[in-house]
Predict the 3D structure of the following.
Amino acid sequence: MALEAIRYRRGSLQILNQLLLPAELRYESVPGVERAWRAIADMEVRGAPAIALVGCLSLAVELAGGSEAPAGGSEAPAEDAAALEAFVERRLRYLLTARPTAVNLAREAQRLLAFIRRRLQTPGVTAQGLRESILEHIEGLLEQDREVNRRIGGHGAGHILCHLPEGASVTILTHCNTGTLATAGYGTALGIVRALHARGRLRRVLCTETRPCNQGGRLTAAELLHDGVPATLIADGAAAAAMRHRGVQAVVVGADRVAANGDTANKIGTYQLAVVAQYHGVPFYVAAPSSSCDLETASGGDIPIEERSRRELTHLQGVRLAPEGIDVWNPAFDVTPHELITGGIVTEWGVFAPGELRRALAERAALAGGQQ
Ligand code: MRU
């Protein structure tokens, strides 16, 4: 059975509490937006696509008025379509305050609101009809995300292999968790690893433990083991040595936000991996759905970087590691400058050099707009 971060059926949402992994597999009920906000802020669910999905699906639970939806202040208006739009906008705006760096939830919120505005222009639209179409729109995101990830996996694997001798197998180094647990399934960077494995071309994946919260050591390691993918866990500080001694053919990471010039925010430690990869001549890839690309943000310097609790560094699973009173700086993300992304940015539409991204995405968006 595949590990799943998100379990949804109309009126009911459950998330796997990732703070407890790998020791305990516990699903928590998310009856609405307030609970989703807390799950996102506390990192019970994490990873840019999964954050967007849980945010939107928690709103769907409220809209469906399922048995688990909270009573009281968060009840969606039943009679008035314009009031329903205002309700959705208010709930999305609140969700967006949970974590600042990943852009996917903001992108899905924009898309949902644009969808609602189009529906409101349909003659005779009722609140009931609008609510049903919002639910269908949100519910469609789960399968869309899985499909996007499979396409990223195929493009990325193809690109890595086409630069290698026929039949060669590869060792990939990855950071953080970008797999099933960070998405609706399959994963982005880890989707590329899965695609290489499925083609029989993956020798091994090295996953960094990813301090301070150990998404690599706890989550990626658990996923890879669960799926029988040959994997080795390394300390974050072992990446340079791994590139020197273990024959790494590519570094593949995810993204929380890709700016218009290709600068990429991802889990803290990504930037230093890119520097080390360049020194060793190892291609560095960012795997990101187009929903992680933010053409309104010109460059990495404009991306808000979340700073998290000092406790994430001073403690591990509740046990104090660092002395009381030590000063702490704990940014959750860093920005990799586009010139270090030497392999390319892998999206569902193909692999682009950072400098091509803006044009490629604008063209695709125009095409999609024309098809609607
Ligand atoms: O703080 P997190 O665990 O939410 O950070 C996650 C990452 O940085 C991931 O690499 C990124 O969100 C991409 S997940 C497909």
